[in-house]
Amino acid sequence: MICGGIDVGGTKMEAQLFDEGMRLVTSRRSPTRHEDFDAFIAGLAEEARWLIAQSGRADLPIGIGLPGIVDPVSGASTASNIPTSGRDIAAALQASVGRSFVYGNDCASFALSEANGGAGEGFGCVVGLIIGTGVGAGISINGTTPPRHNQLAVEIGHVGVPARTLRRHGLPEWRCGCGRSACFEPYMSGKGIANLARWKLGQEVSAAEIAAHPRGGEVLDIWADVTAEALDTLQLLFDPDCITFGGGVSRLPDLAARLEQALLRLRLGTSRPPALRVARHGDSSGGRGMALIALRAASSPSA
Ligand SMILES: [Zn+2]
Questions:
Q1: Cα of 181 to ligand 1 centre, how many Å?
Q2: Domains of the chain and any CATH numbers
Q3: pLDDT by residue (tens digit) across 259-286?
Q4: Are the beta carbons of 46 and 30 closer than 8 angstroms?
Q5: Distance (Å) from CA 51 to ligand 1 centroid
Q6: Which of 84, 87, 135, 207 is most buried (most C-beta within 10 Å)?
């Protein structure tokens, strides 16, 4: 057993232990604690201690993938789905567990994992887009994360939806968890699908139930059109060769085909669309990527 990763999401955190071939040996999930910062750190410390105990190695390289942004200078966190904004997670966890860890953005580590033995293998520029409780993306170039980019997220979930898209569907401006309105997240995320269903059908239908609902197609057409605008933005800014999808919403049936069609309708001129692929490592991908980052940091400490 050579490395571990902890993927921290808005709903749950998952600790994963990997062997020499980056195969998952064992994992465990627990709910992300939201009461306050101290409770959040206590939950995270428990996952870290579990990994250390499972591996039998006090110095096991462990990478922790966090949603949102960690300022590389001050260590202060900014996140809309976990109670850590303005706080230094690394310092608090070190005080609790008595050793240091490697940190990165959960979406950047997801992109790295999929670019190394995942759905983005063989592509030069891979954007990993996680659509779950929140919406965020990361980038891997030639199988690595660009300098500082394992800390810096591509916060596409908090970019504004274009006025043309809202107007096309007559959609209202919905408030986002970040405090602003009409970000992509409240339309694209799992909750976003439920928001669209409530608005379009007047019914409570969850993202997991939408595909089987008799009028689910109407909701998913709007969702795909809004999501394709986000993909178009990613394409215009980064020109990725491949976009891989993770998070709960990536389990929608025919996700890639549905988004390919929607993106083709929007694209600018004859620009080459990226390949769209659902993640190969699924829910384990974020932790797997962080484990890889920790392993690489341990083998070249000066990097
Ligand atoms: Zn937002």
A1: 7
A2: 3-109+283-299 (3.30.420.40), 121-279 (3.30.420.40)
A3: 999 999 987 777 789 999 999 998 778 8
A4: yes
A5: 33
A6: 135
